[in-house]
Structures are given as structure tokens and as C-alpha cells.
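Forum: Protein Structure Q&A
Topic: Joint prediction for protein chains with partners

I've read a bunch of threads here and the consensus seems to be that you should model interacting components together rather than docking separate models afterwards. I'd like to see that in practice. Below is the full input, 517 residues plus whatever partners are listed. Could one of the regulars post the assembled result?
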Amino acid sequence: MTDNELITLGIETSCDETAVAVLRGASQVLSSKVASQDDIHSAHGGIVPELACRRHIELIRPMTASALEKAGVGFKDIDLVAVTRGPGLVGALLVGLSYAKALAWASGLPMVGVNHLEGHVMSAMVENPDMPLPCLALMVSGGHTELFLLSQSHSLEWLSGTRDDAAGEAFDKVARLLGLGYPGGPIIDRLAREGKPVYDVPVALKSEDTLEFSFSGPKTAVKNIVNRLKNEIGENLPVADICASFQSAVVQALYGKTRLAARRFHPASIAVVGGVARNSAVRRTIGALGEELGIPVIIPAPELCTDNAVMIAAAGAGRFLRDRNNPEFHDFQEMDATPSWLPGV
Amino acid sequence: MTISWPTRDGSTTRLKRVLSSVETTLALAEAIGSILKPGDMVLLIGELGAGKTTFTQGLCKGIGMAPGSWARSPTFTLINEYRAKSPIRHADLYRIDSPEDFESIGLFDTAFDGITIIEWADKLPLDLELGVTLVVELKEISQTAREIALECGTELGSALTQCITTQYDISG
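Posted by a regular:
Agreed with the consensus. Here's the joint model:
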């Protein structure tokens, strides 16, 4: 089969979502199914009521059937299986990995084990296959805040990450402090547009010569602001102004470190990936950084920013197409989950 | 302390102190980390922003995690694993609510022979057979000061009392 005809089945079960996708070639999405627990989450204020492994076991087969049906292909049409190997919860990862191994082995197919974070970075290339490399990728989500450099040979180098909380986690916890519900990110984004950043929310490491992030401070700063205002003016808090102050501090920190990394590594493009890439202020501010540096900024469509299997299929297909005859694609029987695996570390 | 899981040796020591700064909190946590052993389980209790992740960073440093690597909040990832002199599992129950899930995330997998640290541990059912080594409760008393309550078996308790009385600037 030619490169453009390769049919890849992508499987992702690293944490909360059970996701399956079918991809043709390197970037044509035939189907993408995500069993999201967000609806259940919001009813419980962000709590996972029925978690991980058991849900994945129940969902993996029907989700695969549904993704294949939507794509209009059968099991016999699959040429490659790509599956998330880590990082994530070991029990959750093993559901997807065992299913993928069984499927690939029974059908005599090659299989690629994909790093979840590498998948997020590669999500930028799904809609932009000609993205100029090297690309500086800012990966921001509830669980991660990392900077990566994707080289011209598609190798991924980890540059830095957060020392404490992830940016998305800080959004979620600030929303909880303000009683705004779940998921916190979109709510704060919306309210911040109606407010002004009048409160001082300091961000640690912001002006230091390090590429690392720290978002535990802004969360605690908001808590202190809320406590002080409750004493001074009672329960009727200026929520929009607090949201604007918090969001501005976080976005400025993301901007500052991305800019510092760009000056050190001279990328040909910048990608912003992960759930927080949906935030309007993040998109606007990093977009402006691209203009300032004269390089394109690529931000995937919202459904590719949150956890999905298209990115896993794309990362797997990319690796397979660059090195088709490598015997390691058929030597996956002993492949194990790697719960704490950062790419390139 | 309002909650109490049975400790490994069945006996109990309780200590309560005031930690005047973030540095004092980190120093005490590091000292405690250095006397923990593989197989130990530390439970952390405290509100949002009480300093559970900060305390964990101190513990990890004491357990021998390399300088320059950081214990991160596992709120979304649920369990983080770190390399140190003993392997460390750092878990967070903030997003977890049902008893089945405590098992399903694999926290009480007996094959693990490192040190386990659990944030938001007050969500754990009290009747769980945990083999807890130490329970730490942090309470905010000002922007930087924290009240710390420690509960553990007497053997670790005497080592802890030693730590607290000889090395750290702690009032209370």
C-alpha cells in the first residue's frame, strides 16, 4: 500500500478517556471517537465517579467497533495499530495496550507504542502536515505543562516542565475556589473577558532565567485574595476581575517561557497543544508571539487539543511511514506500559 | 487529628507543631523523608493550598530524589512515580470519590516496594487496611505559617520527636 493508503487504528486509554480513531495516511481523519466522562464530571464538581480501568474495559470494544463503522472500514482493512504506552495510569494503559497487542498479533499487523505527550505534540501536524520544523511545542493541560522541541528528523526533545501544578490544574482549582463548577478552564476564560486584571497574582520563576514553570503560587494567591475580599466586602466577590487577574498571570508566564525557549532554540514554528490550548487568551498571546518572532503558530482544532486517539494514530503512522521495514514494529509481544515515561528523557 | 487509621505497629504517637515558614515546612518534610523506609505509606491531609504538594517535595528530597527533579501535583495524572533511593509513588485523591476507584487506580497493589505518599487522604475509607506509617495534617494559620499534626507508630514517633526537638526552628 502507498503511504497515503495506510489505514491506522489509534487507541488511547491513558487516563480518563477511552478513545479510538481511524486515520488514512499521515493525517486524513476517517473517524475519532472519545468516550468523555466530562458530563459525569461536571455533575460531581470534577470528581471521577467511576474511574479508569473498569470503564476502559467496558468501552474499548464498542468504541473500536463504532470508530471502524464511522470510518467505513473493517478489521481486515487495518494496516497498522498505534496505541498509547505511557505516561498514564498503569491499569488504564494496560487495557488499551493489551487490546492493541491482541488485535495486532491476531491479524499479523505491525504495532507502534506511542508516548501520550508525543501524541499531543503530533496533533499539531494533523491539520498542518507541512508544519515547519524544528517546532517549539508548548503542551498545556490539566496534568502537564511542558516545552518540547520537535526536530527536523521528528525526534522529540523535552526542554522543561512545571515544578509543581500544571496550568490546567490551576484553572480547575481556582474555579473550585470561586465556586464556578467544572471544567474550570472554559468558565474562567469566559468570565475573564468581562473583568479587568486588577489583582496582583504573582507567578514564581516568571522573571528567572529558567524554562521551568510553577503554577502552585497563582492558585494560593487567588485563595488569599478571596479570603481577604470575603473579610472586607462579604460574599459578593468581583469574580470576573479575579478570573481576569489569574488568567492574565498564567498566560503571561506561558508566554514568557515560550519566548525564552524560542530565543534559545530558534524554532521555525511554535505549536500549542493540550486542553489549555483552547483558552482564548493563550491562543491570542502565543499568536502574538509568533508575529513578534515572524514564525507561524499552530494550534489544533479544539477536539484535537483534549485527549483523543487521532493524535496517537498520527504519531504512530508518522513513525511507521518513516521507517516501515524496522522489525521492531512486529516485535511488540513483550511491550509493557510505561506509566512515568517522558519523551526524550 | 480527626481521623485515625491503624498504624503498622498498632501503637500511636501524636505531635502537633507550628511551622513558621515554607522553608521550615520543607526542612521538616526533608528530615522526615530521610528516615522513611521502603514500604512506608504517608497520608497527607489539608485544604486546597495548605501545602501538601510542597510537603511532598520536601519528603521526596529527603528520600533522595535528585536535585533539579520535582515532585509534581498528581491531581490530574492521579499517580506520579519518581526515582530516588527508594522508588516513590505520589498519588492524589482530589478527583476520586468512590471506594471501587481506590482499588482501580492500583494504589494498594502489594507488589510495590517503594514509598507511597497520598494527598487528600481524608477521602480514604477509615476501615481500609492500609498499613499506614505516618499521617500528616496541614492547616493554614497565615499566608506562610502552617500548623502540622503528625500521627504515627511509636518507633517512627521517637525518631520524629528527635528531628523536631533538635534540628528545626519550630514553635508551639
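Residues 133-299 of chain A form a domain with the Nucleotidyltransferase; domain 5 fold (CATH 3.30.420.40).
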